[in-house]
C-alpha cells in the first residue's frame, strides 16, 4: 500500500499508466468486452485488471493519476449504444461524472460506434478490464501532459 495512491491501482496498472506518453490512449472496459483478444493487439500486448469494481470506480482511480489531454478536444470517449448513438445509459453517466470531477469542469465524452471502438481499442497502449457487468461500460482515454509548474502534491 502506498500513500496518496488509490488502492484500486495495482502495480501493473500503475506501471502502464506511467509508461504511457502524451497522446497514448487507454481503454477501460466492462466484463463483456473481448478484453483479452483486443489487449493482445495493443502496444502493451496483455490485459490489465482493476477487478471487482464498477467502470466509474476504475475511471476515478485511473484519473486520480492520469492527466487527460487538454490539447485534443476529444480526450474521453464512450462506446455508443447500438441503434441509439445519443443514448447515455447510467453506467456512462456515472463515468461522465468522474471525468468531470477529475477535470474540474464539464468535459463531455464523445461517442464511438461499437465496431469502431473495437478498432480504436486495438490501437491503444493498453486495455484495463473492470468488474462492470452493465452493458456499454467501455471507455477510451487519451493521456495528456503535466505542465512544468503544476502542483504535483
TrEMBL record:
List the keywords (alphabetical). Answer: Isomerase
Keyword flag Calcium: no
Q: Which reaction does it catalyse?
A: alpha-L-fucose = beta-L-fucose; beta-D-ribopyranose = beta-D-ribofuranose
Q: What is a biological process (GO) this protein takes part in?
A: fucose metabolic process
Q: Which GO terms describe its molecular function?
A: D-ribose pyranase activity; fucose binding; L-fucose mutarotase activity
Keyword Isomerase attributed = yes
An example Pfam family from this entry, by short name, is RbsD_FucU
For this protein, the record's Gene3D superfamilies field holds: RbsD-like domain
User: Know the name of this protein?
Assistant: RbsD/FucU family protein
